[in-house]
Design goal:
By secondary structure, the protein is mostly helical. It has helices at residues 15-26, 40-54, 58-65. 53% of the residues lie in helices and 0% in strands.
């Protein structure tokens, strides 16, 4: 018999399930700026929100200053 500390072992949740539950239960939205399910304007909005809240991504910073 194996013993695992609380929170370890068992089944891992699918990342999409974690995102869905985060949105439904806590109003937290985790979305990739490259998500193919979004249209270009939606992806651009996500990028702009991310930059406003957290600053530019390193790959965006290099592309603009390179």
């Amino acid at each position: 018999m194996r013993w695992h500390p609380h929170g370890y072992g068992g089944q891992r949740r699918d990342p999409e399930q974690v995102k869905r539950e985060g949105w439904q239960e806590q109003g937290v939205l985790a979305v990739s700026a490259d998500d193919d399910r979004l249209t270009w304007p939606e992806r651009e909005l996500v990028r702009q929100l991310g930059e406003k809240l957290y600053g530019p991504r390193p790959s965006d910073r290099e592309a603009r200053h390179g």
